[in-house]
Amino acid sequence: MPEATKTRILLAEDHALVRRGVRLILDSEPDLTVVAEAGDGAEAIEKARTDQPDLAILDIAMPRLTGLQAARELSRLQPDLRILILTMYDNEQYFFEALKAGACGYVLKSAADRDLVEACRAAMRDEPFLYPGAVTALIRNYLDRAREGDSIPAKAITVREEEILKLVAEGHSSKEIADILVISVKTVERHRANLLQKLGLRDRLELTRYAIRAGLIEP
Fold this sequence. Notes:
It holds the Pfam family Response_reg. Residues 150-215 form the HTH luxR-type domain. InterPro entries: CheY-like_superfamily, NreC/VraR/RcsB-like_REC, Sig_transdc_resp-reg_C-effctor, Sig_transdc_resp-reg_receiver, Tscrpt_reg_LuxR_C, WalR-like. It comes from Carbonactinospora thermoautotrophica. The protein is an alpha/beta fold. The chain folds into two domains: 3-143, Response regulator (Rossmann fold, 3-Layer(aba) Sandwich), CATH 3.40.50.2300; 159-213, Orthogonal Bundle (Arc Repressor Mutant, subunit A), CATH 1.10.10. It has ten helices and six strands; from the N terminus they run βαβαβαβαβαβααααα. It has helices spanning 16-27, 41-51, 67-77, 92-100, 112-124, 132-147, 159-169, 174-181, 185-199, 204-213; strands at residues 7-12, 32-38, 55-59, 82-87, 105-108, 129-130. It has a six-stranded parallel β-sheet, with helices on both faces. Helix 5 links the parallel strand 5 and strand 6 (129-130). The longest helix is centred in the middle third of the chain and has 16 residues, at 132-147. It starts with 6 loop residues before the first strand and ends in a 6-residue tail after the last helix.
């Protein structure tokens, strides 16, 4: 496979021996290549800036900045960068924090030889990768919240924002949306700006994709 079409990976792990082992797993795959390595979270952010990888694999426990702190910062600086968290902790709290920080997958080091390559490919397909214990944790969390009467899951956007998102995705202009909802164009624009910011999206195309995923419109 030509270099240009391989997934370019940044690998951040503070133990050189572990890093070497993980790199061997990744570099032996025809569609993956490690283009940069980092020994801590701060260095990972630097390397992501200079090497422009497609995917960052971050160990959770690193000096200077943890993998979670680095993931938060990288999600903000490079929204298109896919992030996987590599950890020795089968811990629900870390797992949920990783998802909140912008990671699309959580891989246990003990199963890296089995799961990591699959997780990389899932990330590049924009699919989450969850190891079996994480799926159990998600379901348990969902059921606990249902039992306590919490909204499941907490919605990222308001009802009004959802209405506007749907109309934007259907191709209506701000003026048409204002007329349909009987509000001012300025209010429509404000809601639209809020939507982009809240959902971390950039334009109408991404809003439309989100609306399809959220089941608001048919693809």
